[in-house]
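Running this now, will post back.
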Amino acid sequence: MEIIYPGLLWLIIGVILFLLEMAVPGFVLFFFGMGAWITSLGCWLFPLSINTQLAVFLISSLATLFTLRTILKKVFIGEAKDDALDSVIAHGGEKCVVTTAINPPAEGHVKFSGSFWRAEAEEAIAEGETVIIIKQDNLLLKVKKIQ
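Update: finished.
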């Protein structure tokens, strides 16, 4: 005697995975829940063996994960924007103060907008001098002396 219909079991597993997605960050369990629901639909339409059910679950979960994750992540979570980096790019030509001497090819440090940044220059710049930001390369600022 069968305890529970396999399609119903996969449906319940899908609901549990959707609920767990709300508690666990990463937006991955959602797609395994989708795979469980697709497997539930397959069990409802066709008599599937347990091996076939597991194969359908695995393939559908991975297929939805790789095809829809980037699209749905933008919809549900949104795109991250780093305002600090954008403000540096927007403030190209801004002045900042050298806190650790810059001796090329070695890097130094500058203080800009209340934060300390790694900096490099084409010429040696002493600690305490004021410089201008030329451009940004990730978290490295390229600076030059004020003429």
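Residues 6-76 form one domain. More later if anyone needs it.
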